[in-house]
């Protein structure tokens, strides 16, 4: 089980994986609602070819809901994104945008 620190460290790593050329024309905010002992609220905003993140709640274009454990497994490649969504381990309010985010952050 990942610690709170490991969960929080996912977001700076996402920024390191950010591919601005794939984000051209994308201006969105994504809210991550992670449940469980090590969960929390996080957000990522993509605008004008840049990405930033933070903790807390922010008005979002898409929401991702998952247990902190499942989210951590997903971003580390231990959980298949399509299976995670199909089996309800990860709930995404906009699947099309979710797929685009996987590409923009080179995940999965």
Automatic annotation (TrEMBL):
It comes from the Bacteria. Residues 20-105 form the SCP2 domain. Keywords: NADP, Oxidoreductase. InterPro entries: HSDL2 (IPR051935), SCP2_sterol-bd_dom (IPR003033), SCP2_sterol-bd_dom_sf (IPR036527). GO terms for molecular function: oxidoreductase activity. The keyword Oxidoreductase applies. The keyword Oxidoreductase applies. SUPFAM superfamilies: SCP-like. Belongs to the short-chain dehydrogenases/reductases (SDR) family. This is SCP2 sterol-binding domain-containing protein. It comes from Phototrophicus methaneseepsis.
